[in-house]
Design brief:
alpha/beta; six-stranded mixed β-sheet; 50% helix
Length: 783
């Protein structure tokens, strides 16, 4: 195994994954995983994994039972006339049974496995052989069954008859001898596969028959009476026939297996590969992993990447993710920060996730992560000091750097921990700078404590600083990875916190010089400002999310009101039209009567004219209802303080209450809030003619707003609760919500899932992962 597999702990990932395989065949393939050369090979491996991952998460279990390693039997079967034993034949049958079950399972789901289906079509079932085996050999006891052949059934019937005859004679003899007190035990025993009586030593010569054995104490003899010798001999003959027939049956079954040996070998190969994919998918589920995009560029982009071994040990909530982008503008990262701050873990995470991706494994990072054209990994992490080879820490470090300098190319990823350490700091730093310049054609990530390297990264194109965040107030690491900012080692601050005398610390600060203190001071000041900025940004993000939620809710409610208004108007128009039709009929009756009575023509024309006016009025109402309500007309004037405007981004309207500030923003008073918005996003409109406004008083829920618990509810009550919960979630600006319905019979889950699919506020939904509540929870994302 490659040395970097152990250094990056990829071997432990393979060990964990092999434990998830269903067979030793799958384990063997998993442990043999290597980086793949071709992009399409990696993408195929990832696609297969995702397809099985989806089946395991949302479909019936994949039937992976019965996959045995029968390869040692192949050599034996190739020898003509070789006969396999019942256990060996059952192992071959198990392979064929597994192939048949998996072929049936995947054949009914071809639309869900567009990539995997080609592999599954390589499974070759042989139901006729399975039927022969089912008829011939008992699966548990491995006994050859009577149904294996008519001859075997006949022979065993004869054996049974002969035994019954012998037993009857022996029972008569037993009764006679027992009555005379000649038996040590009043039972029929078996010795040498023959029925015998247990006779006392004193009477052994008085019982005519064959002595087969004596007890350990010498007080009993096992005698076969002469009356049953012929029956027992007949039983022996039948048993010999039985053995010959069993051998014939095993020979026949072995011959059948030999005929289909190529298909069995093909099945073993496909089953092993399917089991390896199965193990990959189970690991992906355990890690909540996704397939990264594989590109042909020199590039690494990890979004919310987590170390997989830490995930398995600590859980997702307790592992801080990192975001890394390398290759587009920068080819090298220099990570700095205090000891035990997570630099080496970050280094290993970048390397391990890149290696996993190149091996066709899903990685614990967001789906839009991507890994480029990396074919070689050079890893220098840890102390390789060797007393036996007379190598110091620095000498060992130099040997590793020498290998990297000579062999790393544009398709390599170089990872070096504490670059240039173990010697004079200035000379070690100079060597590190020279090596990083030399590695400009490949991707590299290194860690350091040297301030000169931080400045070097700032001054050199293609090289960027990165650091692990450190809480200045508590002097504890947060393990958050940041790019673009160097980190301080915090040696003096930590020394002060641990109680080192302040005199020593002041002396130490003077010893490092003013320039060093100035640089560390700048880094500390930057850290403080960055933390304040992040806190402010988080608060702004919360407010923005709330505003977006309120805006979205306002839009939806407004649209509902408009729709209801149009519906009511349409209903009124239909009612008016019905009334008009009735009126028209009455008027026509009146006109007919007037004509019949020779009425004045002018009176008739006047009545019809009034009727036509009424028709026109109703038609106007219908046209007004069918038309969409128009927004207030905009003007071409630039909006100013006091103008009534519309915010084009969100559709809100209100009055400008201030002049633009330096950033071009003004205060906008809307119906429900006062907000700062860019003046360029406002257009002046005509103010509304009516002063009445519709106000909403929406009560914000307390407690967990992103989760609703439906357990114990009936379907109707649960659906009503979900509907109200989604409205509250929209008001609070939430994106992700949890709906707890429990597992039970699955009826409530199915109804909730079907309802959410039809809800136009839902962007996507899925069942919870194993660490989110499994199938008892539905996770939905709002639009």
């Amino acid at each position: 195994m490659n040395s970097h597999f152990q250094t990056l702990e990829f071997d432990k990932i393979l060990d964990k994954m092999s434990e998830l395989a269903a067979s030793s065949l799958g384990q063997e393939l998993v442990l043999a995983i290597q980086p793949l050369e071709q992009k399409d090979e990696i993408e195929k491996s990832l696609a297969r994994t995702v397809e099985v991952q989806d089946l395991l998460s949302y479909d019936k279990p994949v039937p992976m039972e019965g996959i045995l390693d029968v390869r040692p039997l192949f050599k034996k079967l190739r020898i003509e006339n070789t006969v396999l034993q019942a256990e060996e034949l059952m192992a071959l049958n198990s392979i064929l049974s597994a192939a048949r079950k998996l072929r049936q399972y995947f054949s009914s789901r071809l639309d869900k496995i567009p990539v995997l289906k080609k592999l599954t079509r390589g499974l070759i079932p042989h139901p006729d052989f399975e039927k022969d085996m089912e008829r011939s050999i008992h699966p548990q006891s491995l006994e050859i069954l009577d149904s294996a052949s008519p001859e075997l059934a006949s022979i065993r019937k004869k054996i049974s008859g002969a035994r019954n005859a012998a037993r009857k004679k022996l029972e008569q003899k037993q009764k006679n001898l027992a009555g005379r007190g000649m038996l040590q035990e009043d039972v029929i025993a078996v010795r040498n596969d023959r029925l015998v009586l247990v006779v006392k030593d004193a009477y052994k010569h008085k019982v005519r028959g064959l002595i087969h054995d004596r007890s350990a104490s010498g007080l009993s003899f096992f005698i076969e009476p002469l009356e049953t010798v012929e029956d027992n001999n007949r039983i022996r003959e039948y048993q010999a026939e039985e053995k010959r027939e069993i051998q014939r049956i095993l020979t026949m079954l072995s011959s059948l297996a030999r005929d289909i040996l190529p298909d069995i070998e093909a099945n073993v190969s496909v089953l092993a590969e399917l089991d390896a994919v199965y193990a990959r998918a189970r690991l992906a589920i355990a890690l909540n992993a996704h397939p990264p995009e594989i590109t042909g560029e020199k590039h690494i982009h990890l979004a919310q990447g987590r170390h997989p071994l830490l995930l398995l040990r600590l859980g997702e909530k307790n592992v801080v993710p990192l975001d890394v982008s390398l290759g587009s503008q920068q080819h090298s990262l220099i990570i700095s920060g205090p000891n035990a701050g997570g630099k080496t873990v970050a280094l290993k995470t970048i390397g391990l996730l890149s290696l996993m991706a190149r091996c066709g494994l899903c990685i614990p990072a967001l789906p839009h992560s991507s890994i480029g054209n990396i074919h070689r990994f050079f890893v220098a992490i840890g102390d390789r000091q060797s007393i036996e080879n007379d190598l110091s820490t620095f000498s060992s470090h130099l040997l590793q750097l020498n290998e990297i300098a000579r062999e790393a190319d544009e398709r390599s990823l170089v990872l070096i921990d504490e670059i240039g350490s173990g010697t004079d700091p200035e000379e070690g730093t100079a060597l590190a700078m020279a090596l990083l310049r030399h590695l400009s054609s490949c991707l590299s990530v290194v860690t350091t404590h040297q301030s000169a390297l931080k400045a070097f990264a700032y001054q050199t194109g293609g090289i960027e600083n990165a650091s692990m965040e450190f809480d200045i107030d508590t002097l504890t690491p947060t393990y958050r990875f940041r790019t673009g900012i160097p980190g301080s080692s915090y040696a003096f601050e930590i020394a002060d916190r641990t109680g080192l005398p302040s005199v020593l610390i002041r002396d130490a600060r003077e010893n490092v010089g003013s320039s060093k203190n100035k640089l560390e001071g700048l880094i500390l000041e930057l850290e403080e400002k960055l933390q304040r900025y992040n806190d402010s940004l988080q608060q702004i993000s919360i407010k923005e999310t709330e505003l977006q939620g309120l805006t979205r809710l306002y839009r939806d409610k407004t649209e509902n009101i408009r729709s209801e208004e149009r519906r009511l108007k349409k209903q009124a128009a239909q009612q008016a039209e019905q009334i008009l039709a009735e009126t028209n009929a009455r008027v026509e009756n009146i006109i007919r009567e007037i004509r019949e009575k020779q009425a004045n023509r002018e009176v008739i024309r006047s009545a019809k004219r009034k009727l036509e006016e009424q028709k026109n009025a109703v038609e106007k109402i219908r046209m007004d209802v069918d038309e969409e309500p128009q927004l207030p007309e905009t003007t071409h004037e630039k909006p100013a303080k006091g103008d009534y405007v519309r915010w084009t981004k969100f559709g809100s309207t209100g009055v400008i209450e201030s002049t633009p500030d330096k950033r071009g923003k003004v205060m906008l008073q809307t119906a429900s809030a006062k907000i700062s918005v860019p003046q360029s996003e406002l257009v002046k409109i005509e103010p509304p003619k009516t002063k009445s406004r519709v106000r909403y008083n929406i009560e914000r829920p307390a407690g967990k707003v992103n989760e609703v618990d439906l357990r114990g509810m009936d379907v109707e009550t649960a659906l009503n609760a979900v509907d109200q919960f989604i409205d509250r979630a929209l008001l609070n600006g939430l994106k992700d919500i949890r709906i707890v319905h429990g597992k039970g019979t699955g009826k409530l889950r199915a109804e909730i899932f079907d309802y959410l699919k039809k809800n136009n506020q839902i962007a996507s939904l899925r069942l919870g992962n194993w660490n989110e509540g499994d199938t008892g929870v539905t996770i939905a994302q709002l639009k």
